[in-house]
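User: I'm writing a short methods note and want a consistent example. For DNA-directed RNA polymerase subunit beta, I'll paste the sequence; you return only the structure tokens, no commentary, since I'll be parsing the reply automatically.
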Amino acid sequence: MPVAPTQTAKMLERAVSSRRASPHNDDDDADADAAAAADESKTKRHLPFSFFTTRLTFYFARLGPLWPCVAALSLALILIFSLAFHSRTFVCVSPHDPVYRSGFFGFDALESDFGSLGVPWCRSKHGKTVEWTSKDLLKGLEEFVPIYETRPIKNNMYGMGFDHSFGLWFIARWLKLDLMIESGAFKGHSTWVLRQAMPETRIISITPRHPEKYLKKGPAYVDGNCTYFAGKDFVDFGSIDWGKVMKKHGITDLSRVLIFFDDHQNELKRIRQALEAGFRHIVFEDNYDTGTGDHYSLRHICDQSYIRGGGHSCFKDSDEARIRGRRKKFWEKAVDIEELCGPDEAWWGVRGYMRDNFNHSNKPITYTEHFQNSRFVESILDVYWELPPVAGPSLTHQTRYDPARAPPPIIEDGRYGLFQRLGLTRLDTSVFNGYTQLVYIEISRQ
Ligand SMILES: C[S@@+](CC[C@H](N)C(=O)[O-])C[C@H]1O[C@@H](n2cnc3c(N)ncnc32)[C@H](O)[C@@H]1O
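Assistant:
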């Protein structure tokens, strides 16, 4: 049964606050703890405030001349602990590292669910990772929020929201390559994002319907320094003679080109095509989680039992089934075991299917094929990096993606001050609803 938004919001509030409160972090347990605490508060006698102040004065009086030292020591201890706790945000630790996920009081609620669910990811050949740190991401956010506020297309339903716009802008600006190619432009919002990142760089935009067509109906963006393969000039990325096009654009080194795919095509197909042409830097907008989405994604491919959080069980009495069932109540995109598993307990891809082209085409794949696909991808990957959600769900009020299947947010729950300082409270909460794990990969030199 669908859950009403207000009810979902209440459940979310409860889930988030209970997660912070309970160190062993089982949602049910946290609810039970909260109920027990409420009951206790009913029976507990409330002592007057004067009782505590009197006790405190008495205690310090007994310490005599030592009390300033005790007070200073306590203050220093509190400072050291709070610094140790918060500095986590500013160090570059792999989000897949358990240390990254451990809270100050041990593993939090997300962590206990991660034990069974986890975040699947693609292994790179030599374990290389990106150069940027969470500190760089925070600095980037500070810069990007005012830029985003000037976007021409305010309502970009079916296109990118805030998280992915930031991710694309950040990556494009960090890499500073010589040419940017996008496949899937819709009204042109992503073209505008690329332009904000690199004001002078040439863009090639491939999309069946020219964004100028949307201008007749409302806001759209058409770029002046862009070659459009659109409308009657549309040619699919896989059918373009890239040698010829690169020559025409004066590009001799294809590792100086960034490709952005938001065309909902099988990502394995797109990787093979990019590899054949010689491109190396790719961003996929929708890195759908296993069991979800309209095309075969990198996450689908790399979801293997040898990856933490990968490989799944279709057994109805398993821990995973219970956790999934529970999380489905809170998060729209969470999938329970019934949705995850197709005939013959096929859980890979989407219920054992490899989807393509907005799910207009889909074909069953065997587990062996699925396994071979992951080995192929791992054999050509130098870097794999998933954009974390910009901020925790209690800050953004989003209830779609399940935080147990995503890297920890750039701004963690509870850091409202930072969220506000970065100007994120000025944005409509609907812009935070489109997070689907945008991913950047670097293909090794062939
Ligand atoms: C989700 S929208 C893109 C949203 C856009 N990037 C944005 O941020 O607003 C997907 C786009 O892919 C286009 N598309 C469909 N098939 C395509 C193909 N084979 N190659 C490129 N684009 C395609 C659709 O027409 C649509 O405009």
